[in-house]
Amino acid sequence: MNATGERPRTVRDRVRRRVLTTVLGRIDNQAYLRDAVTVDAHRATASSGNGPYYVSGSPHRRDIREGRDGAPLLLRVRTVEVGTLTPVTDATVEVWHCDADGIYSGYQRYGADRFPALVSLTLRRFRPTDSATFLRGAQTTDADGRVEFRTVVPGWYTPRTVHIHVRVSSAGKALLTTELYFSDDFTAHIQTLPAYAGRGRSPFVNTNDVEIRLAKGSPGSWPTVRPAADGHQADVTLQIRR
Question: 11-240 sits in which CATH class?
Fold first, then answer.
């Protein structure tokens, strides 16, 4: 860190961030976000790609924190079929996300304040650079299609809004890959807490996030968040089209 307590950034990083926030700031996601949390039994949860930081073979466990600092979060996921809302049982649910500093396990060499090194990642075919597994885990859905994970609220990294990746598969076949999002008010509050405050408020929010726009508001990907005894609890039902 420099004398002001900030992480050093290159001029190029600052220019890139300014350009991106200016361009994305012109994107009107409000029309998409208005109906994003509306429950519709006949509408599948929005899908997305794995992203560059997916690693297969996540540890099978409920607590994925591995001692990472951050606001405690109990993430409860239910998987059902679109239309009938029949539970999707015996499916594997994987989750992965960055830590309070915006860093992903397996890719710790890539800083959170710079644009992702996509050229380097691509040349490596997105192979991990380290063997860390924090904030990654998998569970098997029960008879009601439910799993839960003990984790922390993610931090932010350039150029994305706060999110959690989720992948649902059965018998080796992917059924759904999506991202979970939180309200900007909630993440703004979280970013004032000690584990997050050093990086300040994220300039990348839901209303200028390109992935949310591409998914037309990402319906079905917005957990209901409420206070819990030791932090927060987030509940979401993923509607899957087999």
Answer: mainly beta
